[in-house]
Amino acid sequence: MRFKGSAINSNRIKVETGMRIVVHDYSGHPFQVQLSRELARREHEVLHLYSANFLTPHGNLRKQSNDPETFFIKPVYMPRVNKYAYFKRYWVEYMYAWNLRRRLADYTPDVVISSNMPLFHQNIVQNWCLRHRKAFVFWLQDIYSVAITHNLTNKFGLLGKAIGRHFQKIEAKLLRSSSANVLITDAFWPTLRDWGVEGNNTFTIENWAPLEELPPYPRQNEWSKQHGLDNFFVFLYSGTLGLKHGPELLVQLSKHFRTEKVKIVVVSEGSGIDYIRREIMIQGIENMEILPFQPFKSFSKVLSSADVLVAILNPKAGEFSVPSKVLTYHCIGRPLLLSVPEENLASRIVQENNTGLVTDVNDLEAFLRAARGFYMNYNKFCELGANARKYAEVTFNIKKKGDQFENIINRCCMDLRQHACRKPSNNQKRSLK
User: Fold this and answer.
1) Cα–Cα distance between 206 and 223 in angstroms, integer?
2) Alpha carbon distance 417, 110 (integer Å)
């Protein structure tokens, strides 16, 4: 655990057991629910909440026979809506936040950890925690308002910029008002300092993937046989694929290998898939297979069916965002092929650990050249896959992550109790009248 401010030991400190904890992950990703299970194994009562309607690959969100008795999973529902219908989407997400608030009121947790939540609605959850004297931990996956400002400015000019600044004020207020903040990278710090966020309650814990739940399988396995992939060289993409992710790159990859014994497998849903299906029809592409999101229990076999795992990011992607698919890919022990902005954190992880090839998101020729290199000289690149698994084994230690989060939770609850025990000053008393 890294931090900017007063020190806290990253080893396990004396912690309270039996706390009631809510871990809310709007996206339902694999590593957040793994954290919930780990905390429940430490004699805490943990309720894991997620959006049942958000279209993205989910983690292991079903209660397992070996789960602790104190671990619970509940979905939070909202109506489905086109994500590009902005006003309808806002009201639907607003309904989600109120449904989530009801879940919190029914459960009465000691602490709420919340991630991937739209800012307006994260504000509703935080306000509930403040009103009811519950600790609130903002698990910051990206500086959302900066990306929002950039997008709105491009679309609406000065009006969009003004709206974006309003979002920045909301996000800054959320971070300043949280019991603690967990950042996925120290690179967030310059922005947070500009916003006046204190360092003594803000910590860095890098994201991970659930290593134990994602064992590598042989390249030819039950899933690859079922989908007729055993006799092909397979480039596989799995994860969210909207238009902003650049699905045309996968179409170009398919066209590039049109005459070879190569399959491009895309496991996804959404607007990007609609685009690819249209291109398949228009251009008569035959070496591409489109599949919906697969159950988490078979996910390791899905990814293991690839010779190369592919990730792409839009040029406007946040500098610090790391798609969870990139971390998940590392567990499987296959080489990675990335088309991402050079400054993106995912690019640095892959290059620094020699786990794949990275090309700039604007350089199609370099991307196709790297793919061709994998295909023509695959044995030369097998070491990259071994490096990927090694990186995951060294980095994705759930016991250490559990220690770090448990320390933060305990600190938040202690601070909250100490604050409650202090007598208000005369000025504070007057402000309460």
Assistant:
1) 31
2) 11
Contacts by 341-345 with C-beta closer than 8 Å and gap 24+? 341/313, 341/315, 341/317, 343/319, 344/313, 344/317, 344/318, 344/319, 344/320, 345/185, 345/187, 345/319, 345/320, 345/321
Q: Give the pairing type, strands 2-3 and 202-204.
A: antiparallel
Of 311, 297, 376, residue with least CA distance to 346: 311
pLDDT at 4: 46
Q: For residue range 260-297, what is the model confidence (pLDDT) as tens digits? A: 999 999 999 888 899 999 999 999 999 999 999 999 99
pLDDT-above-90 percentage for the chain: 68
| Predicted TM-score (pTM) of this structure | 0.86
Mean pLDDT of the chain: 88
Confidence of residue 420 (pLDDT cuts 50, 70, 90): low
Of 90, 46, 87, residue with least CA distance to 68 = 46
Q: Is residue 50 a contact partner of residue 28, using CB atoms and an 8 Å limit?
A: yes
3-state secondary structure at position 270? coil
Strands 308-312 and 288-291: unpaired
Structural domains present in the chain: 2-208+397-432 (3.40.50.2000), 211-394 (3.40.50.2000)
- Which alpha helices (DSSP H) does 132-221 contain, by range? 144-156, 158-177, 189-194
Task: Give the SS3 label for residue 74.
Answer: strand
